[in-house]
Fold this protein.
Amino acid sequence: MRIELELKTSESIFDPDKVLVKVKELEFLSEQSDFWSNQKKAQGTLKELSLLKKKLSTIDVLSKENDDLLELVEIYSDEDLDDENIGELNSSLLSLIENTKNFEIEIILSKKEDVNNAILSINSGAGGTEAQDWADMLCRMYFRYAEINNFKCEFLDRLDGDEANKSYAMKILSSKLYELEIEKVKSKEAEQNSEKKEIGWGNQIRSYVLHPYQMVKDHRTNEEIGNVDSVLDGNLKILIDNLLSKIKE
């Protein structure tokens, strides 16, 4: 069944046995008498330990729910089910698939830099007033995405005062410097991000068609969504998750 495949996929990119070994290693370190001699390092270790334990617990819960549901499916397979029972089983299976998919994305975003903040820059490029209006719509879309997913978000370039503008400049500079270091260390990832293209038609990663029909298409995954209003209101999760899954492959 699909749910079994989803769980096996998660386990293939998140090796529970390997993680358990790491958990035991970190627990051993936390029990040493000099563990708190370096508080910053100790706090980082405890944070990593907590995250790993949480992931192990999550996959255990998902696996148990999967087994329970599959057992119910087998029990009911030879019996007549009414529409209500079928609906409940189907809803539970879909929910478990969605939770498993979310866990898979969480695993994919487990690199050291994935816990850091992100700075998103939206430029209108050529096009005058209409292009600026569209940039504002995209800005709102990403802001809504952050709200929907409980991310803290602020408009750095809209802060008032000299000190605020200095803070913004330092954040941008720090981000750029960090990005350069990452590119030096990870040449493969740098190759994927090295091409800087002109802002214009034909170079977009995603297209939005509003008339005469409505469609949003992500050209990196070929994912298409007909409800443009929903996407522009921040419902980008399916597009982003599919892209992350493709990158994982």
Summary: The longest strand covers residues 206-209. Residues 195-199 have pLDDT under 50 and may be disordered.
